[in-house]
Design a protein that fits this description.
- This is AAA+ family ATPase.
- Helices cover 56% and strands 3% of the residues.
- It has 133 residues and is mostly helical.
- It has a domain of 86 residues.
- The chain has a two-stranded antiparallel sheet with strand order 1-2.
- A hairpin with a 5-residue loop joins strand 1 and strand 2.
- The chain is flat and about 70 Å long.
């Protein structure tokens, strides 16, 4: 679990990079001899507008990730082994009720009784054959 967290953080922080690559690709394509079609020019204008609108939000997101990264790293280092143990113990979470916090602060997960278990394919069908999602 902890060995994958740096990769996840790296991907989250590198998310804005493809936008810069798209912008570079569009400026390189403008130099072609044939010239872009009207649709290509419209798509470029749209993408540039989208990038200029998204740039401040992505910059803020990047700064937010930088602020929270130490806390996330610490959380993963402390809780990672416990989560791995939980995943090894509980093979199928569908067999359990949602976690409950007791008044003393303990967290428990009650196992469902056989009658409470939902079997695959046990979907309620409405009067017109509709399935409630």
């Amino acid at each position: 679990m902890t060995k994958h967290m740096p990769l996840i953080l790296l991907l989250a922080l590198a998310a804005p990079l493809p936008i810069a690559a798209i912008a570079q690709a569009t400026t390189d394509e403008e130099a072609t001899e044939d010239g872009p079609t009207l649709m290509e020019r419209g798509a470029r204008i749209f993408m540039r507008g989208l990038m200029s609108e998204m740039e401040p939000a992505l910059r803020d997101l990047h700064e937010s990730f930088e602020e929270v990264e130490p806390a996330i790293r610490s959380f993963v280092q402390e809780m990672g082994p416990a989560v791995v143990d939980l995943l090894e113990t509980v093979k199928d979470f569908r067999g359990y009720h949602p976690p409950e916090i007791l008044p003393n602060g303990d967290i428990i997960m009650r196992k469902k009784l056989p009658g409470e278990m939902e079997t695959p394919g046990e979907t309620e069908v409405g009067p017109d054959g509709e399935v409630e999602l």
